[in-house]
Design goal:
Layout (H helix, E strand, L loop, with lengths): L1 H13 L1 H38 L2 E5 L5 H12 L4 E7 L1 H11 L4 H5 L9 E6 L3 H11 L4 E5 L2 H43 L1 H9 L4 H36 L6 E3 L7 E3 H31 L3
Antiparallel strand pairs: 1-3, 1-4, 2-3, 5-6
Helix pairs in contact: 1-9, 2-7, 2-9, 7-9, 7-10, 9-10
Subcellular location: Cell membrane
Membrane topology: Multi-pass membrane protein
Family: Belongs to the ABC-4 integral membrane protein family. FtsX subfamily.
């Protein structure tokens, strides 16, 4: 192990500028990758929160009886798309209106208890199902109006998808660049040590003895870069949680319906980035050694 480490240090001293460039680019790569994962996680958390709160409201005509509304409520509750249906009577609607406008006595005096319609507040399991239900309910008997903030929800979904796509493209691009840098670094190291490697083979050195320092170099670069970027991201994320900028729980975009404590998510993120760094460095250096080491 000592010889492996000494050989690694010699390689670094010979290619100082390239080593610095390698570490900087790989660190930026994992920062971008980590920020991409954070942005996706936060957008999915916001989307889940919106899904939990988004609803459509069905207002009924005065002549439509309460029993008829409750029958419709029971029918909607059997729909697989529906998560929750809440009945708001005329009295309930007036109480809500009074609470919202309690600082406007003149307005309250001008509104009678029976002027506000009864309604059903419907929440679906998926945001996409709300639009379909609007068209179905608008033609139903007794329905006066269906309110649904379609544009706001659709814009948010479009924004979330755009963020995901842009982040994914940037992350892939930086990973490719970082991989290329690892390969180039190992290739230049091999070129600068060409005669030395040939001598080692002539005196009976094994392939493992010759290749191990080069593979270790790439793997170590990946590990250090991932550690630095992980530390920065962890500090930023922890600060965000401490100051209330980030939520205490986040949704996992690859596991529907699951939320993690943000602190646990940070630990998982650090582990994923470090593992990615080690794998990227190991694969890049192994490919470079296999492709360019000729003796």
């Amino acid at each position: 192990m000592d010889k492996l480490w000494q050989s690694f240090l010699v390689n670094i001293k010979r290619e100082k500028l390239l080593v610095v460039a390698n570490l900087v680019i790989m660190t930026v790569t994992f920062l971008v990758l980590g920020m991409f994962l954070n942005i996706i996680t936060l957008s999915q958390t916001a989307l889940r929160s919106l899904e939990e709160q988004a609803q459509l409201t069905v207002y009924f005509r005065d002549e439509f009886l309460e029993d008829q509304i409750l029958n419709m409520k029971s029918e909607l509750e059997t729909d697989e798309r529906v998560m929750e249906v809440k009945y708001v009577s005329k009295d309930d609607a007036f109480k809500i209106f009074t609470e919202i406008n309690k600082d406007q006595p003149v307005l309250l005096e001008s509104i009678s208890r029976n002027i506000l319609p009864a309604s059903l507040e419907i929440k679906t399991k998926e945001l996409a199902d709300l639009s379909g239900m609007v068209s179905e309910l608008e033609g139903r008997e007794g329905v006066e109006e269906v309110k649904f903030y379609k544009e706001v929800i659709e814009r948010f979904i479009a924004w979330s998808n755009a963020v995901y796509l842009i982040g994914l493209v940037l992350a892939v691009l930086f990973v490719i660049v970082s991989y290329a840098i690892v390969v180039v670094t190992i290739r230049l190291t091999i070129s600068s040590k060409g005669s030395e490697l040939e001598v080692l083979k002539l005196v009976g050195a094994s392939d493992k003895y010759v290749k191990a320092p080069l593979v270790f170099q790439g793997t170590f670069f990946g590990f250090i870069s991932a550690m630095v970027s992980s530390a920065l991201l962890a500090l930023l994320s922890w600060g965000g949680v401490s100051y209330g900028i980030l939520p205490s729980k986040v949704a996992l975009f690859f596991i529907p319906g699951v939320k993690l404590e943000t602190v646990i998510y940070i630990v998982v993120l650090v582990f994923v980035l470090i593992l990615s760094g080690v794998l990227l460095g190991f694969i890049g250096s192994s490919v470079a050694v296999k492709k360019y080491l000729k003796y």
